[in-house]
């Protein structure tokens, strides 16, 4: 098994063989991604549409005004002149895709002969080993369409270079942060920060899951888990490990731990992490289906009669008959098998063969995710992005949900200027769509959800109007003082919520305070929550609501106080022996208890990682305006049997 820590070190150092291979691969991919070579290609037009959905306007996001210096980035990869940054990003991501597919094959190859690179990159080698839904057709297999000697030579050079890292014994444990750190090394920080890409450390994901499992009162092996914005899969790895600890004699159910994400590279990374954990024991004889899907948790398909309306995310909207969806759920075909079904032969016929397979893979992922069973625990780190900064097409597709859930305090023509954060909407959608009644949600959220007078007022009603469900915040762990994400100063908190429960105050609220040695502990490649907590001091308290929908205030540790009568524009809470905490009526989220430091600048504002009869399919340019359904878009579980 490859030593991923040594791979990471060599990728960082410019004078190492692996770094040199990376530079040559990226330059080679960049040359082949010349727009003049792909002019008129439907496939590349669709890729550009999806990148726009994920990142917004790439040229604007990566412009010099965004503090991205094309010259210095070009120097890193050996360019004589400053490169086009969107094209450079595609080249780097293509290299990363090839790299982690080689790493994935190394985790399970055993005595199997090395397959040709074309079979490995296309995913056929994994299908032959019984691994399904791993890396079929995606945007990053474009080199196979040209596959000239120069491309083949660079990819073979990368595979040969990686063989020198095959030093770990079989069955070694993969750190949940390893692939995330590799991605953060391959993609320069200037690009990642401009695009708003950050990943959750493994020890923090572990704590998030511990809180939820403890609150459920059940063993992890008896629960179903879902991360609707799974990124690199760090929460999925922690859930699999907790299940393995409870049921060491057998593998988890194939869909007991599930992940969704919109970004194809994030989904691929999560699948490699998932596969690495599962491959530590013999795989099932029937093979392994990886339940991680390219799926937009907000802009989900809509049931309209006997048709499922699916937004592919790349400018195309499709009407798929429900009976065909039922067959896809029951049979779990690959894209080629799906298109060969008699009922699907008329699908996507206007696209070239490789485009048909790629879009079929997207459709299958949307269908599988839509009809997946709800989870007992929903966990994760949803995207943090102000509503006004979302790309217009994406904003239009999810706009109706704000009113449906009763979250908007700004209506009408001012909607586009709302300061609400999309993580609030994401949390409500997860409670509604993905969680069983009485289930638990454990998320990492911005503190503004509870602190700000402008933000989160609709959320702090603890009720979703459309589905008519209540929810209760069980506890909050305030991480504002420790800043767990490198490069992000936005104060965040671990929030534990129970669905279908009336909210009650006070809410247990604990501050994390770093002790000496904390930074060294969290930066260890093998950091776990057990190795981090000795360097944390917990300061307890209870948070109380002040007025209807207002931000919360906090009592002091180990003391109690009586809430005074609150009225007028200058409402205050007085505590014996302490300074006063002002609670403004509106206009600011910078009022903190005495001694609390403001987080300063937040993350980059933009979408995160994190757009005839029978089988005929409507294929049209997607305008971004999603029609309001008559019925709420819920899976028809009575019509389609759930997995498992």
Would you mind describing this structure in some detail?
By secondary structure, the protein is of the alpha/beta class. Helix content is about 35%, strand content about 15%. The chain has 23 helices and 20 strands. Strands 2, 3, 5, 9, 10, 11, 12, 13, 14, 15, 16 and 17 form a twelve-stranded mixed sheet that branches. The protein has a four-stranded antiparallel sheet with strand order 6-7-8-20. The radius of gyration is 25 Å and the shape is globular. It starts with a helix and ends in a 23-residue tail after the last strand.
Q: Main traits of this protein?
A:
644 residues; alpha/beta; twelve-stranded mixed β-sheet; 36% helix; 15% strand; disordered C terminus
Blueprint of the fold:
Elements: H1 4-12, H2 17-32, H3 42-55, H4 58-61, H5 70-76, H6 85-108, H7 117-122, H8 124-128, E1 131-132, H9 143-146, H10 149-162, H11 178-186, H12 189-195, H13 202-216, E2 225-227, H14 234-246, E3 257-261, H15 264-278, E4 288-289, E5 292-294, E6 302-304, E7 307-311, E8 316-321, H16 322-331, H17 335-340, H18 353-370, E9 375-380, H19 392-405, H20 422-433, E10 435-446, H21 448-451, E11 463-464, E12 469-478, E13 492-499, E14 507-514, H22 518-522, H23 529-532, E15 536-539, E16 542-545, E17 552-554, E18 571-573, E19 581-583, E20 620-621
Helix pairs in contact: 1-2, 1-11, 2-6, 2-10, 6-10, 6-15, 13-14, 14-15
Strand % is: 5-15%
Fraction of residues in H or I helices: 25-40%
Shape: globular
- Point out poorly predicted stretches: 412-417, 557-644
Distance between the termini: 31 Å
Alpha carbon gyration radius: 25 Å
Average pLDDT metric: 79
Going by helix content, strand content and strand pairing, the class is alpha/beta
What is the overall number of helices?
Answer: 23
For the largest beta-sheet, the strand count, sense and barrel status come to: 12 strands, mixed
Question: Count the strands?
Answer: 20
């Amino acid at each position: 098994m490859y030593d991923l820590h040594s791979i990471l070190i060599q990728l960082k150092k410019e004078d190492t063989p692996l770094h040199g291979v990376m530079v040559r691969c990226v330059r080679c991919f960049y040359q082949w991604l010349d727009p003049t070579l792909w002019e008129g290609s439907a496939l590349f037009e669709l890729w550009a549409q999806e990148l726009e959905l994920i990142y917004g306007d790439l040229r604007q996001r990566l412009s010099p005004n965004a503090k991205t210096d094309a010259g210095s980035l070009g120097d890193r990869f050996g360019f004589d002149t400053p490169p086009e940054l969107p094209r450079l990003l595609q080249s780097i991501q293509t290299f990363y895709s090839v790299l982690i597919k080689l790493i994935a094959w190394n985790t399970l190859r055993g005595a199997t002969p090395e397959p040709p690179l074309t079979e490995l990159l296309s995913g056929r080698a994994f299908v032959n080993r019984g691994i399904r839904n791993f890396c079929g057709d995606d945007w990053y297999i474009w080199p196979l369409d040209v596959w000239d000697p120069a491309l083949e030579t660079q990819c073979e050079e990368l595979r040969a270079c990686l063989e020198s890292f095959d030093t770990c014994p079989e069955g070694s444990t993969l750190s949940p942060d390893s692939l995330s750190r590799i991605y953060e090394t391959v993609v320069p920080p200037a690009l990642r920060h401009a695009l708003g890409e950050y990943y959750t450390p493994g020890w923090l994901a572990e704590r998030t899951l511990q809180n939820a499992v403890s609150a459920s009162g059940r063993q992890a092996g008896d629960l179903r888990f879902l991360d609707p914005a799974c990124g690199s899969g760090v929460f999925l790895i922690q859930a699999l490990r907790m299940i393995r600890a409870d049921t060491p004699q057998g593998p988890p159910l194939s869909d007991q731990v599930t992940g969704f994400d919109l970004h194809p590279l994030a989904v691929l990374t999560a699948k490699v992490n998932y596969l690495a954990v599962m491959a530590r024991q013999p795989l099932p004889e029937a093979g392994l289906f990886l339940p991680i899907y390219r799926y937009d948790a907000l802009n989900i398909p809509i049931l309209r009669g006997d048709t499922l309306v699916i937004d592919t995310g790349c400018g195309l909207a499709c009407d798929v008959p429900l009976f065909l969806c039922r067959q896809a759920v029951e049979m779990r075909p690959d894209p080629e098998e799906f298109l060969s079904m008699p009922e699907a032969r008329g699908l996507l016929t206007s696209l070239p063969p490789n485009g048909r397979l790629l879009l079929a893979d997207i459709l299958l992922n949307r269908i599988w995710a839509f009809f997946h069973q709800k989870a007992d625990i929903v966990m994760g780190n949803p995207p943090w992005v102000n509503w006004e900064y979302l790309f217009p097409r994406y904003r239009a597709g999810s706009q109706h949900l704000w009113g449906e859930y009763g979250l908007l305090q700004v209506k009408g023509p001012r909607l586009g200027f709302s300061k609400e954060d999309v993580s609030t909407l994401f949390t409500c959608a997860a409670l509604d769509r993905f969680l069983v009644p009485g289930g638990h949600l454990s998320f990492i959220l911005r503190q503004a959800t509870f602190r700000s007078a402008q933000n989160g007022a609709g959320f702090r009603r603890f009720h979703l109007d459309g589905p008519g469900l209540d929810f209760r915040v069980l506890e909050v762990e305030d991480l504002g003082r420790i800043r767990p994400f490198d490069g992000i100063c936005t104060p965040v908190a671990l929030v534990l919520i129970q669905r279908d429960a009336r909210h009650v105050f006070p809410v247990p609220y604990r501050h994390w305070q770093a002790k000496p040695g904390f930074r060294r502990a969290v930066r260890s490649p093998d950091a776990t929550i057990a190795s981090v907590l000795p360097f944390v001091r917990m300061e307890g308290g209870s948070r109380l609501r002040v007025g209807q929908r207002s931000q919360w205030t906090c009592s002091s540790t180990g003391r109690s106080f009586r809430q005074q009568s609150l009225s007028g524009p200058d409402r205050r809470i007085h505590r014996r022996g302490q300074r006063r905490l002002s609670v403004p009526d509106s206009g600011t989220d910078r009022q903190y208890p005495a001694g609390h430091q403001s987080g300063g600048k937040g993350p980059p504002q933009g979408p995160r990682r994190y757009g005839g009869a029978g089988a005929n399919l409507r294929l049209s340019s997607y305008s971004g305006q999603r029609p309001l359904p008559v019925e709420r878009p819920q899976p028809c579980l009575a019509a389609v049997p759930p997995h498992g």
